[in-house]
């Protein structure tokens, strides 16, 4: 299994492309840690990227504890 930490940025996208080219996507997971404050375009990009690759997108999120919203409860 290959798990790629997908941030929605060009670096993680390029990493996913390289892993897919070398190992295929039958057991690839794109793992996205959602802060719940991203722009809609980022969510669309992640979804489209996963569909284009044929990989599974897994979204992990937590409960916000306060300010700033990046602080998540375990």
Write a concise synopsis of the structure shown:
The chain is built from two helices and three strands, in the order E-H-E-H-E. The protein has 74 residues and is of the alpha/beta class.
Kindly list the characteristics that best describe this protein.
74 residues; alpha/beta; 3-stranded parallel β-sheet; 2 helices; 23% strand; globular
In words, what does this structure look like?
With 74 residues, the protein is an alpha/beta fold. The chain is built from 2 helices and 3 strands; from the N terminus they run βαβαβ. It has a 3-stranded parallel sheet with strand order 1-2-3, covered by helices on one side. The longest helix has 14 residues. The radius of gyration is 13 Å and the shape is globular.
């Amino acid at each position: 299994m290959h798990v790629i930490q997908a941030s929605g940025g060009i670096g993680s996208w390029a990493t996913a492309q390289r892993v897919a080219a070398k190992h295929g996507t039958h057991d690839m997971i794109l793992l996205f840690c959602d802060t719940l404050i991203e722009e809609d375009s980022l969510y669309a990009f992640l979804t489209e990227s996963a569909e284009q690759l044929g990989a599974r997108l897994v979204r992990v999120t937590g409960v916000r504890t306060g300010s700033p919203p990046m602080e998540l409860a375990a």
